[in-house]
Automatic annotation (TrEMBL):
Domain Amidohydrolase-related per the UniProt entry, residue ranges: 63-369
Annotated source species: Phyllobacterium salinisoli
Lineage: Bacteria, Pseudomonadati, Pseudomonadota, Alphaproteobacteria, Hyphomicrobiales
PANTHER family named in the record: DIHYDROOROTASE-RELATED (PTHR42717), IMIDAZOLONEPROPIONASE AND RELATED AMIDOHYDROLASES (PTHR42717:SF1)
Positions bound to Zn(2+) 1: H71, H73, K169, D285
Binding site for Zn(2+) 2: K169, H202, H225
Site feature: Transition state stabilizer: R171
Cofactor or coenzyme needed: Zn(2+)
Entry protein name: Amidohydrolase/deacetylase family metallohydrolase
Family label: Belongs to the metallo-dependent hydrolases superfamily. Atu3266/EF_0837 deacetylase family.
Cited function: Esterase that catalyzes the deacetylation of acetyl-(R)-mandelate (in vitro). Can also hydrolyze acetyl glycolate, but with lower efficiency. Has very low N-acetyl-D-amino acid deacetylase activity with N-acetyl-D-serine and N-acetyl-D-threonine (in vitro). Theoretical substrate docking studies suggest that other N-acetylated amino acids may optimally occupy the active site and may in fact be the physiological substrates.
Amino acid sequence: MTFAENAMKPLLLTHVKPMAFGPATPGGVVDILVGADGRIAQIGSSLAVTEDVTRVDGMGAWISPGWIDLHVHIWHGGTDISIRPSECGAERGVTTLVDAGSAGEANFHGFREYIIEPAKERIKAFLNLGSIGLVACNRVPELRDIRDIDLDRILECYAENSEHIVGIKVRASHVITGSWGVTPVKLGKKIAKILKVPMMVHVGEPPALYDEVLEILGPGDVVTHCFNGKAGSSIMEDEDLYNLAARCADEGVRLDIGHGGASFSFKVAEAAIKRGLLPFSISTDLHGHSMNFPVWDMATTMSKLLCVGMPFDKVVEAVTHAPASVIKLPMEDRLSVGSRADFTIFDLVDSDLEATDSNGDVSVLTKLFEPRYSVIGSEAITASRYKPKARKLVRHSHGYSWR
Ligand SMILES: [Zn+2]
């Protein structure tokens, strides 16, 4: 039977254990009936349903609000680095994907028409401050000088796409901005203020310094790659930067993981969490050069944070309520009759899987998040962790790299 045929029928989820639905979360194992209209019709233990329904047995698995990945790259075909939404979305347990600046004002219309609108998943986007976005990522940088930013066109693009755009993205790293320093971050903040949306800033190779970026950000803004292990950008190599990050987090700046190919360190994350500094949100920064190594998917990234000491319920909150607040997605009554179904069904299983961070450090994950289903309306999509493909050594103009 195809998903389309399934979607016509009501969906009965049996033996699922709700978590992260707020104070009214029912205890123990329940059944949930979702009507053919995609809305919750009934919740209870051992529902007696006589009508013709699609049945999914959760076998005691957890059910939470659908997972949200706050940092992915899915402008597939419009940038050289992006993957398809289907590669990191419902089939991986993620029902909402937030693209972090793959599109700029010059090409956002294509992203909307060819990716956002046809996708099964809910897709939101941070608009890149640079007009061209990540067309030829890091080969044709999007923020070389002021000619790469068009304030009027950004405002126009936002006006036409405000239901899709949730903020402004700035990649503040010398790989992109050369010696331009922190100026693009200041311009991004100005635009974000005018539009009354958050700004997400990528921190990496200085300039700009992580410290300078934090000084510009305000409550509600997001710093992604927060626990990177890069020289000059790690919060664990400079006590002043650590204290600044901790103070900004207290004041409402959101520290986002944004694992990616180069931006998550087990050592930094473990040390920060041990000192009580937890990430606000857990995101993958999945793209074509990070998926097979070292990120794989959302569930593995969540398992990595669990492994370095983040509590289980905090990990789930960091992929549900936390990113939902950034994109203004309402989270009240997500398990109430009449609400639209948007769930992830998952298990936490024992494991001895070896996983690698962006610095090449290896940890054994003793517990693994295993997504089983994504539920979007009356459709249940089978989900699993990504099985990485063998890496290939690729030759290019300035050497070799693993792909
Ligand atoms: Zn990214």
